[in-house]
Amino acid sequence: MIPPDGQPILTAAAMRAAEQAHGDLSALMDRAGRAVAQAVARLAGPSPVLILCGPGNNGGDGYVAAAALAAAGHAVRLAAVAPPTTDLARAAAARWTGRVETLANAQPAPVLVDALFGTGLSRLLGHAITAPWHRLAAAAQLHVAVDLPSGIASDDGAVLSTPPPAQVTLALAALKPAHLLQPAARYAGTVRLLDLGIAAPSSCHAIAAPTLPEPGPDSHKFTRGMVAVVGGAMAGAGELAALAAMRAGAGYVVHLGDGQGPPHALVRKPWSPAALDDPRIGAVVIGPGLGRDAAAHTRLDAALATDRPLVIDGDALHLLDLDRLADRQAAAILTPHAGEFAALFGKGQGSKIDRTLAAAARARAIVVHKGPDTVIAAPDGRAVVAGDADDWLSTAGSGDVLAGATGATLASGVAALDAAAAAVWLHGRAARRCGRSFIADDLAAALSRVR
Ligand SMILES: NC(=O)C1=CN([C@@H]2O[C@H](COP(=O)(O)OP(=O)(O)OC[C@H]3O[C@@H](n4cnc5c(N)ncnc54)[C@H](OP(=O)(O)O)[C@@H]3O)[C@@H](O)[C@H]2O)[C@@H](O)CC1
Ligand SMILES: Nc1ncnc2c1ncn2[C@@H]1O[C@H](COP(=O)(O)OP(=O)(O)O)[C@@H](O)[C@H]1O
Ligand SMILES: [K+]
Fold this sequence. Notes:
Blueprint: H1 12-22, H2 25-44, E1 49-53, H3 57-71, E2 76-80, H4 87-94, E3 100-102, E4 111-115, H5 127-139, E5 142-146, E6 168-172, E7 190-194, E8 204-206, E9 226-230, H6 235-247, E10 252-256, E11 267-269, E12 281-286, H7 294-305, E13 310-312, H8 314-319, H9 323-326, E14 332-334, H10 338-345, H11 352-363, E15 366-369, E16 374-377, E17 383-386, H12 398-411, H13 416-433, H14 440-450
Parallel strand pairs: 1-2, 1-4, 2-3, 4-5, 5-6, 6-7, 8-17, 9-10, 9-12, 10-11, 12-13, 13-14, 14-15
Antiparallel strand pairs: 15-16, 16-17
Helix pairs in contact: 2-3, 3-4, 6-12, 6-14, 12-13, 12-14, 13-14
Potassium ion binds at residues 58, 114-118, 145-148, 150.
């Protein structure tokens, strides 16, 4: 049972192609079912298990798992919604010599395994399935989903039919978008990958702990990375970003704008376009609290005119002409929330991953599409997905903190996609350290502890 960090994410079609390329599908189902049995036995201990099987290959995995658990002496029962309809699932079902109960009449067990539907779900589940399933899940102490919680769309994380939430989802061979994208991900519980030994290449991965440069004997404040935060109408937002940049590891942070007070380590200068000419600046952060007036326009123009890497957030995203980015050589990272994303790129098509990739290609920049799930995409087609964000992040200024942290990781010299992903990871971990009802100032402070 492998944690999802850094693992490839595959659409249903890509998963099917990987399975076909492997060749022996029956051996694959055998491995999948046995791996599920092993995982369930570990999670369940000696508790009796009830496995619910669907008509397709997800159900096939369930039959193999049931047979393997029974062979190991585990108390296991099985209920099916319909007879198996694929050759693979029929062969798997033939290995289960026990009774096949109907879903409607099945009595609960302490451990419930959902092998109803996986990547092949194509439409809503009927009441005849959802009603008994919810009843059985409510009576179970542990609910484990095989590959995906049934009822959710694998590729975009839509909820077609609301499943009873699983505590654990056992992803087979690779992660699928729905393991990380909302609203589906909240029904998956803890996601663990079962390695089936097949190559599952992807340009899209789950977020992982970053490798960031550590200071050494030769370091000084400017080698750690210098960040300039452009201030604006709401000085507090820019200051939060500046504080976050310091706490995320920048060696020198200058806030260009009004505002005063602690921290004393923050260098404060009045705004002037010339201040951006300092060649030591590793990243300019613009947008938090910038405002949308003529002065804000002028500041954004000046930032775009520099040859420095940029983090563009908040108000600056509303003022941005995407075509201006095409002429720049230096990296740019855009950090829109859903509203800013829609205003910049329109509604778009496909999953949040697809839409963010299209936006990155359009902007020729890294796009960090924020929310309860965050997708980070590069123009070259790579993407990183951060699931299970702390919902307490929905607090004013948490985006300013992310923008500042991104300034720090970008100024540290790592490549732009890695810098963006590292900042999202640090931000997410910092939130976890803050407990409940934290404010953005606490979040910025916690970045130091995560570093
Ligand atoms: N990745 C791997 O390495 C491996 C993957 N494997 C496993 O294969 C799984 C994918 O299997 P799959 O393609 O057969 O699809 P699955 O999810 O079982 O559902 C399709 C069936 O459900 C039916 N159906 C659909 N919607 C319905 C509805 N609302 N209500 C009722 N019926 C509905 C649909 O009928 P149809 O739409 O064709 O009429 C069809 O019969 C994958 O998730 C993983 O568990 C392993 O076995 C091997 C290794
Ligand atoms: N449930 C959630 N609702 C809203 N934001 C969330 C949630 N979970 C995590 N976040 C994160 O919180 C941050 C909010 O950013 P943003 O909306 O720009 O806030 P602000 O403009 O107040 O600084 C983003 O990093 C986002 O990914
Ligand atoms: K399932």
